[in-house]
Amino acid sequence: MARDLSRLLNPSSIAVIGGGAWCASIIEAARQIGFEGAIFPVHPAGKEIAGLPSYRRIEDCPGPIDSAFVGVNRHATIDVVRTLSAGDAGGAICFASGFTEAMAQDQSGSDLQSALVAAAAGMPILGPNCYGFVNALDRVAIWPDQHGMQPVEQGVAILTQSSNIAINLTMQKRGLPLAYMVTAGNQAQTGLAEIATALLQDDRVTALGLHIEGFGDLRAFEAMAARAEELGKPVVALKVGKSAQARAATVSHTASLAGGDAGAQALLARLGIPRLNSLPAFLETLKLLHVTGWLPSNTIATISCSGGEASLAADSALGRDLVFPSLNDRQRSDLRAALGPMVALANPLDYHTYVWRDVPAMTAAFAAMLDPSLAMTLLIVDFPRDDRCSARDWDCAIEAVIGAQGRTGLPIAMVATLPELMPEEVAERLRAHGIVAFHGLDEALAACEAASRPRPTPPAPLLLPGATRDAVLIPEADAKQRLAQHGLRVPRSERCVDAAAAAQAAGRIGFPVVLKGEGLAHKTEAGAVALNLATPDAVAGAANNMPADRFLVEEMITGGVAELLVGVLHDPAHGIVLTLAAGGILTELLQDRASLLLPASDGMIVTALDSLRIGRVLAGYRGQMGADKQALIRAIRTICDYVDLHKDDLEEIEVNPLICTSDDAVAADLLLRQKE
Length: 676
Fold this sequence. Notes:
The protein is of the alpha/beta class. The protein has 23 helices and 29 strands. Strands 19, 24, 25, 26, 27, 28 and 29 form a seven-stranded antiparallel β-sheet that branches. It has a six-stranded mixed β-sheet with strand order 9-8-11-10-12-13, sandwiched between helices. A five-stranded parallel β-sheet has the order 2-1-5-6-7, with helices on both faces. α6 packs parallel to α7, α10 packs across α16 and α12 packs antiparallel against α13. The two termini are about 35 Å apart.
């Protein structure tokens, strides 16, 4: 259920419950941000703390408690939360650890967490194992440590599952206005998506950044993303866990390709939440979104007074979904008028230093480069270090970029190639004029790429992952029969009990044939697959050499344009993952894959196929015959429909390869793990 977090996050009164040192830290953090409400320290000795009288019991506090910091041990936390809830407090931050995050060391952690939730009843709680929050909009800090935030009128909100990362992010010196820094802890009661929705609904929050370790309630994340879209507020994420090993029991390639992080990536893409890979890129993207919101396209330009920087910009953008359009006639004419005949005109642009210190000429040059066709223009300027040098000679660049933006009203940013060479005061001055100041060229390009991602069409609700299944490996012939009944094209085949029967079956099917040994998960590695057998003797000989006593004889599919892997995997954390990849022997070599969460529309499937490197082969590479795209889509759709019908007991499907021909798509090999 959605809880009202307004009293918790924007309190008029705070209770601080715990030891004297903790109480003093909270009081100091609140004073640092300028909190003007009532603060009630609660301490059993009733002593003065940080100049304030303390109260021996929560019930002795002289007024209502909007928000409480509970800094006592885990057992006492439950009793304190029960008392707060009974007293109609607005909410509590539970600092103590030793709950579910400590179950590996103490099995009682789960029971304690359940007791904590029961004690809270309807009162919102953050945590346990939670550091609290800083609300710079309303000058509130319930935070047991130093923080680097200051009051702001509007800004971005950051929500993280790591308290230490939260502390570090408050100390940023990038000119990024932080409205909220909130930690979520164990999310025993109030989940990440629920807190995020509450932050988004504050009119003063311009964008939201999520640092995510795990998702939890997928329906709540869907609702949060939909609400963000309604409000027109960007959400970006830094999701950790990329380096986690794929599933240990890799019965198939699908488990290896889709295990670990692929489900998380597919979920974020489905929700329309761009993913950043580092804290600096995460912060710079939030900065861009705070100033401009989503970018309308991925077209950019760069301006610098050095050919080296122009080349660096172009090289740094390589591999990113960013485009440097050629200069149009208007840009060329205006740039030539501003810069004269000695400058080679191009995008990226090296404008040299002929006009340096000439503010009107620099303004004209920068304005000439700006164009409505560009989503963002990046002016590269590195400032000298202020402890040894003077930056007075760089004022001309600041004045010119402000002038160019004011003259055109078009988006422009100033970028320092090295993060430390963009002074915070310059970043804040530029932001006041609607200009982004990026700390780092790589981070700026990552931000532009993330902010220009196309907004997805709202998808159908996710197929939610169910309970862990006790699945078994279905024999290939049976698996193919099940899928064939739903319309999947599979090779003609017969099952045989010995080599002689296999040779006879091959004659009935028609040569050439494929022979497979049954009962093995990894047939190729075990030497249990023989292709292109053209005679009965070849079939019998192959059967006698296989480590199997049962066989499957199949027609040999010829005329293949490409081989594809189509896999579906039950991912308990993210949903049901559809993986499309280069198939056959190329699966491991190329690692060419795209993952979606089901249900997936035909449009989503086509986009995923087109994103693959092998997609060009499917389309007909260098004049060669292409695959039948409609047959391919039908085959994938058939597999997805089977999954939908059996989602409660299906663990995994892998078709590898799905042989794509000019007029068909045939499941040559099929693995199925399903609860019987």
